[in-house]
Design brief:
Blueprint (H helix, E strand, L loop, with lengths): L2 H11 L7 H15 L13 H7 L1 H9 L1
Length: 66
């Protein structure tokens, strides 16, 4: 599972989640080492729930449209 997919799953289950910057950096490094790609280009998730959910709106739109 990509970091973006995992983050999306966590955010939809608990929108108020806010992992700290260092943890996200470790996850991004791990993803880069394991898969050779980086799927999440942000350094921190927004603190407001609505902004956090908006990060993954494109994925939801694609799922509901398909």
């Amino acid at each position: 599972m990509s970091l973006k997919a995992a983050s999306e799953h966590v955010v939809w289950a608990r929108p108020q989640v806010s992992p700290d910057h260092g943890f996200l950096e470790q996850l991004k490094t791990l993803e880069q080492e394991l898969y050779g790609i980086l799927t999440l280009e942000i350094n921190a998730l927004p603190h407001r729930e609505v902004d956090c959910l908006a990060l993954f709106n494109d994925s939801v739109d694609a799922i509901t449209a398909g």
